From TrEMBL:
Protein name: Acetyltransferase
Domain PglD N-terminal residue range list: 5-76
InterPro entries associated with the record: AcTrfase_PglD-like, Hexapep, PglD_N, Trans_hexapeptide_repeat, Trimer_LpxA-like_sf
Family affiliation: Belongs to the transferase hexapeptide repeat family.
UniProt site positions, description: Increases basicity of active site His: 136
Species assigned in the record: Pseudomonas donghuensis
Length: 211
């Protein structure tokens, strides 16, 4: 029986991820998974509800979660594991990954993303187009990079942080990494020059807490 990969989410990001999955997994059947199926096909792929996907007769079923919300990704990952579905990752052909880089399962690395060296990244990392992570960075689970994020060296980003489009995070040092706290949000175009506390939203240049 042919293997199948379901892309969870048929919205804009899911449709952007589809060609990456198609290129990386050319021999596997592809489909979309949604919570409520309003369309039978999207961009040439069948659309199933989660239960319909679970009930497919295929012997090998995996899921790539293409949902922007980090908390939703965490919940959906747990839901997939309950049904013994595999968690797959996808990396665009134009992405660059250099030396000593660890990336957890469920990652989505879009076109022209760049991971340099000595980097550790947790599970369900989303890096949108033209984003990079420089040397000696540590990134937690369920972290999201919008397009064109510049994460320089010696930065630690904790679980569930969101980094907005065009944000720039200045380098830390080996003795004092710059830290983006758990669940923090870095706004679009922000220039982060110092650590951000957990749960705080920062905006502007230099980035300051949003009041």
């Amino acid at each position: 029986m042919q293997k199948v990969i379901g892309i969870y989410g048929a919205g804009g990001f899911g449709r952007e991820v589809l060609p990456l999955v198609r290129a990386q997994y050319p021999d596997e059947q592809l489909c979309f998974i949604v919570d409520a199926a309003e369309e039978k096909h999207v961009n040439g792929c069948p659309v199933y509800t989660f239960q319909e996907y679970v009930d497919l007769p295929h012997t090998g079923k995996s899921v790539i979660i293409a949902i922007g919300s980090s908390t939703a990704r965490e919940a959906l990952e747990a839901k997939c594991r309950q049904e013994h579905l595999g968690i797959a990752s996808v990396t665009a052909s134009s992405s660059i990954i250099l030396d000593s880089v660890e990336v957890g399962e469920g990652a989505v690395l879009c076109h022209f993303t760049h991971l340099t060296s000595n980097i550790k990244i947790g599970k369900q990392f989303h890096a949108n187009i033209y984003s990079y992570v420089a040397h000696d960075c540590v990134i937690g689970d369920y972290v999201t990079f919008a397009p064109n994020v510049h994460c320089n060296g010696h930065v630690h980003i904790e679980d569930h942080a969101y980094i907005g489009t065009g944000a720039i995070i200045k380098p830390g040092t080996s003795s004092k990494p710059l830290v983006i706290g758990k669940g923090a949000v870095v706004g679009m175009g922000a220039v982060v020059t110092k650590s951000v506390a957990a749960g705080v939203t920062v905006v502007g240049n230099p980035a300051k807490p949003l009041l």
